[in-house]
Amino acid sequence: MRITDLISTQIAIGDPPLLNAAGLHAPYALRIIVEVVTDQGFVGLSEIPGSDRTYKAMEELKPHLIGMDVFQFNAIKNLIREKLGGVEDSRGETPWDQRLLVHLFSAIEVACLDCIGKKLNKPVVDLLGGRSREKVPFSAYLFYKYEGAGGDLGFEVDHDQSGWLKARQEEALSPKQIVSQARAMCEEFGFQSIKLKGGVKPPEEEYECILALREEFGPNVPLRLDPNALWSLKTATKYGKKLEGLLEYFEDPVRGQEEMGQLAKRINIPLATNMCTTSFEDIPQSIALESERIILSDHHFWGGLRACIELNRICHTLGRGFSMHSNSHVGISMAAMVHLGAAVPHLDYALDTHYPWQVDEVIKGGKIKIENGFVDVLEGPGLGVELDRDQLQRLHQQFLNSGLKERNDEIEMKKVDPQWEFKLQRW
Ligand code: GKR
Ligand code: MG
């Protein structure tokens, strides 16, 4: 089955003013929707983080990918390396991963798997080894935030909303407000574990938030805190000790494998990462330094769904936990995450997702349902989702109107506080 066309569409999805270590989310998050068209009439879908650079690289690859067989993943990977291997390609210092090649390969791989699944009339989970579970657990993902709905409303709110849609617009800057955000999110989606995005407030305040969440939800709801590497070793040791017994895991409190390894020896909380061990090449050093106990995989930057299956086996063999990282996304990424989450033999923790924060959707039938904190495995064929072309067009227009070219949370934060600067270490 050969590729006859590759259509990449840049979209912008409304995103509320969420705060993180790198600043503030823009009113829109950027994604690229990729369609791989084949000579047998099957069209495969995928979704990756958007930027002009990624879009242009995909367009550059397009003529070379046309004619390739959707089953030949190794040849496709070699081609991407051959055509773009010379580019500067590092993950950067931001909480999110900025590498180009892994994202491009993931986009093509997922869309090809969707084509293959459609051709065989099988869900993607069956191409990854079949179901290890019938439904996939997700965790609540809390953010400090300014008041506002994002999208066209920016910092304003839509007063016609109720329930979670109302709560997602509310300011959350204090422990009390974070607890009420958590209550609303858990009531709506039934999440049974909770992550707080940290690296925003001074550590004492983030610690107080964790205490408030524990008091509200009790010891049976696992809690996680993710300062995105903004704390010094000294600060992370001090607060790590105070957080012992409160956290299920502590995500990227400090920067780099060496400091993570040192911290791991000082505190009794498992460390997790989506920042310091992010590729297979990082694993030997991670084992030598014992930098984390849990790897938060992500098919968008680990090089596709099949790579994450390999990672899962490596984690299990080496006694490491496995879960999943996320960024603002819509339903195609969600579907891919669910197929992967259903297939991996060893799933130790509920997965991250930003999905509740996004209202826009690009798939037919609206948003995929999260119930009691779980998503049922999608039946397929392929990813089991269909593109809603009217929505795709609307979200593409939204992208054009937004004027955004790439994600830059520092620039967005400076619009609110011109003195604010991104720092590698803040506390
Ligand atoms: O969306 O602000 C955000 C997050 O900070 C995201 O960019 C991170 O990549 O969720 C991510 C994380 O777990 O570090
Ligand atoms: Mg993280």
UniProtKB/TrEMBL annotation:
TM helices/strands, residue ranges: none
Coiled coil: none
Species: Flagellimonas olearia
Reaction(s) catalysed (UniProt annotation): D-glucarate = 5-dehydro-4-deoxy-D-glucarate + H2O
Annotated ranges, domain Mandelate racemase/muconate lactonizing enzyme C-terminal: 175-270
UniProt-recorded name of the protein: glucarate dehydratase
Pathway named in the protein's UniProt entry: Carbohydrate acid metabolism; D-glucarate degradation; 2,5-dioxopentanoate from D-glucarate: step 1/2
E.C. designation(s): 4.2.1.40
Top class in the EC scheme: lyase
UniProt-listed InterPro entries: DgoD-like, Enolase-like_C_sf, Enolase-like_N, Enolase_C-like, Mandelate_racemase_C, Mandelate_racemase_N_dom
Pfam family, one: MR_MLE_C
PANTHER family: D-GALACTONATE DEHYDRATASE-RELATED, GLUCARATE DEHYDRATASE
GO terms, molecular function: glucarate dehydratase activity; racemase and epimerase activity
